[in-house]
Amino acid sequence: MLLIALDTALGASSVAVLDTATDRILASRSEPMDRGHAERLLPLVAEVLEEAGIAARDCRRFVATTGPGSFTGLRVAIAAARGMALAAGGDSAGISTLAALSAGASGAVLACIDARHGHVYAELTGADGTLLLPAAYVPVAETALMASTHGAELRGPGTTAILAAWPEGAPPPAGIDARAFPDIAVVARMGAAADANLSPARPLYLKAVDAKLPSPRAPIAQFQALRRKVSP
What is the annotated signal peptide range for this record (predicted)? Predict the structure, then answer.
């Protein structure tokens, strides 16, 4: 099965094509950016598909990161994944940004994203894989205390905020990886293993929206709107 993975939830627009039969990434690209995801994503998809030597209609699954992240940014990849899935007759699936950031850890790991106002979006997983803190919007100090108690590695763009609140006298984190966005190859492989019915491509918001969101529209209409933005 061929699969396309998309991420616009955090500080990049990322696309990858995965051949699940061989577990090989045929092509991928990540472009760091704070804004402009909607204008850049579909051209990036076209470039990656061309490099992979396939068309979108050849893919059977379309994966998007679902957040937490930018309230409007994450909707770009979700709308594109769902729209392409409908157009190609495939299915769509969603992967949490926190889960993608945590993937592959050998011990306890805290995935965190700075949510500002003294809070982070965070998920803490124990060394045995137990979910100690499900994805949540939590105070930085409380999160830092939990991470230090469990000797966790820190991952994600919220790492700086957690380190600033690290309890005095506590052992340092087991590791620090302040990556600004998930590895799109990891997102693709997680999406291949996901049950599309249990992991829908649907926004994951962990707190009330600060800004007014666009009114809901059908996925195919959202995708067509994105396509119009990038058409010459």
Answer: none
pTM, rounded to two decimals: 0.89
Least confident range from 75-89, 192-206, 208-222: namely 208-222
Domains (range + CATH), the chain:
2-97+183-230 (3.30.420.40), 104-177 (no CATH)
Examine the pLDDT at 102 and tell me if it is beyond 90. yes
Mean pLDDT of the chain: 92
What is the four-CA torsion angle of 167, 121, 150, 126, rounded to 10 degrees? -170
CA atoms within 13 A on the CB side of 145: 5
The two tokens of residue 66 are 């679902």
pLDDT(35) > 70: yes
Strand arrangement of the beta sheet that strand 153-155 belongs to: 131-139, 119-125, 109-116, 153-155, 176-177
Distance CA 55, CA 39 (A): 20
Determine the Cα–Cα distance for residues 50 and 38; give it in Å rounded to an integer: 20
The residue among 132 and 229 whose pLDDT is bigger is 132
Count of residues in the chain: 232
